[in-house]
Specification:
The protein has 207 residues and is mainly alpha-helical. It is built from eleven helices and no strands. Helix 3 runs parallel beside helix 5 (65-73) and helix 8 (121-128) packs parallel to helix 10 (155-161).
Length: 207
């Protein structure tokens, strides 16, 4: 049927009352053959429906890696979404889809993308208590652990707020390792006798 419509040069980007195109419906229903035919013949993979979601959002929701590969091959924007919808990566995080998060990161999804409340994937993962996703995100070399949401809070702040000792420790260790990597090597160190005394301040968090 899809091949027949394509051969008859029907409009491929028509949409229903929820602004869902034939491509979006095909992806929703896991009809990869139909979706591929539509894409090959010029269907726009970046059209958003009424909810601000593209076909990619539904492929992520279905955890359909093959469909995602096809959509990306035909030019799907991996960051596309409306102002009030999650990017595909953030959608995967919000649904605790660990495998999808890993897959999208390998496809170069922006690990520092933020939602309408300026929440990053890391902040979302921490608020949801998703340790495995936090670990995945912290493995990304360019992740911004200091990013603040619309309320001025960082991922570490939420770990403290939710009393999640494991996630708090993960973020703290990441920051400590990152800081040690960035410390410059002093080629002319001051002798120990001339070094000023350093005060060590210990901060305790009550969980």
């Amino acid at each position: 049927m899809v091949s027949l419509l394509v051969s008859a040069r029907c409009e491929l980007n028509l949409y229903d009352r929820e602004c869902r195109t034939p491509l979006i419906k095909a992806v929703q229903l896991r009809q990869e053959v139909c979706a591929t035919i539509l894409l090959k013949n010029g269907a726009d993979p970046n059209i958003m429906d009424f909810f601000g979601r593209t076909a990619l959002h539904y492929a992520v929701y279905n955890e359909d890696t093959s469909m995602i590969e096809t959509l990306l091959f035909y030019g799907t924007d991996i960051e596309e979404c409306s102002k009030y919808e999650y990017q595909p990566l953030l959608l995967a995080v919000s649904r605790a889809k660990v495998n999808m998060v890993e897959f999208l990161l390998k496809k170069n999804a922006n690990v520092n993308a933020v939602d309408f409340l300026n929440r990053s994937a890391l902040i979302l993962a921490v608020t949801l208590g998703e340790k495995d996703i936090v670990i995945l995100l912290l493995k990304q070399h360019n992740i911004d652990v200091f990013s603040r949401d619309a309320y001025g809070k960082t991922a570490e702040d939420y770990a403290i707020e939710t009393r999640n000792k494991v996630i708090f420790r993960l973020i703290s260790e990441y920051k400590r390792e990152k800081t040690s990597e960035e410390l410059p090597i002093n080629s002319n160190p001051v002798s120990s006798q001339k070094q000023p005394a350093l005060k060590v301040i210990k901060i305790s968090f009550i969980f």
